[in-house]
Design a protein that fits this description.
Alpha-Beta Plaits, Rossmann fold, 4-stranded antiparallel β-sheet, alpha/beta, 2 domains, 35% helix, 11 helices
Length: 292
């Protein structure tokens, strides 16, 4: 079972600061969604609202068709894990996992045990005795083994080294295939997680800049490279996301699909067309002054 999410016109204010500004977005059930945004874009605030850690100032949120606030049924199926792990730091990891099992009806102790071995964690130790990376790994274990219908990872893997992060990604995908649920990954490491994503939401200054299927988003960015005057002519009238020049050669990144006729014309002009990865597209779209 997986939870769908509907966010409608949600605003969250902290005093005079607007963290979320009339955000509207849908997260389809049974998919892995990436929540992307620069620092201060509102990612953690949105995730806190979904997990019922905070009430919106205005607007509405539905998780599995119901308001999650003080909703025991919905909250039993929602697990938000932040980098800190949200665990009892002075209690053994073994006891922490027992507490999680009591609160999460889908918790799998066998999966938790395998992941403890994968990340070389001793269950008798307390989270407070661990390095930052090991604490992050334990938080990831809590989130994965919970198998909550809506599982949210908010930068949980930042403390891990590269091998541990990739072990986490592999474990997530393997268990997701066997036990589909709705997963939200918030991360700055876009180049690492983009292969996992089925949907992408980009926040910018508290607003939803876009929400699209990952494949659709990847297909919309195209780089055009060639002699400056020819490239400028070919891209005239299109939405330009970025421009780089070296001597007489220029590369312009445009937002929008090219038709078969466009691609044929580019070939006739001797221009080189290339894909734009999700991280580059994100950087271009969220740059100050970018055309949207």
């Amino acid at each position: 079972m997986s939870f769908a999410v509907q966010v409608r016109d949600v605003t969250v204010r902290y005093g005079r600061t607007v963290a979320l500004d009339h955000a509207t977005v849908d997260l389809a059930a049974g998919a892995i969604h990436g929540l992307l945004g620069r620092n201060g874009s509102g990612k953690t605030t949105l995730l806190s609202v979904l997990a019922s850690f905070r009430r919106p100032t205005s607007g509405s949120v539905l998780v599995d068709g119901e308001d999650p606030w003080e909703n025991d049924r919905v909250m039993a199926g929602v697990c938000l894990v932040r980098e800190s792990g949200d665990v009892y730091v002075d209690v053994s990891m073994k006891d922490n996992l027992r507490f999680v099992a009591d609160a999460r009806p889908n918790f799998d102790p066998e999966l938790a045990g395998r992941l403890m071995d994968t990340f070389e964690l001793e269950a008798r130790r307390t989270p407070s005795s661990l390095s930052r990376g090991k604490k992050s790994a334990f938080g990831a274990i809590v989130g994965l083994a919970s198998r909550a219908e809506l599982t949210i990872f908010d930068e949980v893997y930042l403390g891990m080294d590269a091998p541990s992060r990739y072990a986490f990604y592999d474990a997530l995908m393997a268990d997701y295939v066997e036990h589909p649920r709705t997963i939200v990954l918030s991360s700055h490491l876009i180049d690492e997680i983009q292969r996992l994503l089925e949907g992408v939401v980009i926040l910018d200054h508290g607003r939803v800049l876009l929400a699209e299927e990952a494949d659709e988003l990847r297909a919309r960015g195209v780089s055009v490279t060639g002699p400056a005057d020819v490239v400028e002519q070919f891209t005239a009238g299109r939405v330009v996301l970025g421009r780089q020049q070296l001597g007489r050669t220029v590369e312009i990144t445009i937002d929008g699909r090219l038709t078969a006729a466009d691609r044929s014309a580019a070939g006739d002009l001797g221009l080189e067309l290339g894909p734009v990865d999700l991280q580059s597209l994100f950087v271009h779209l969220t740059e100050k002054g970018a055309v949207r």
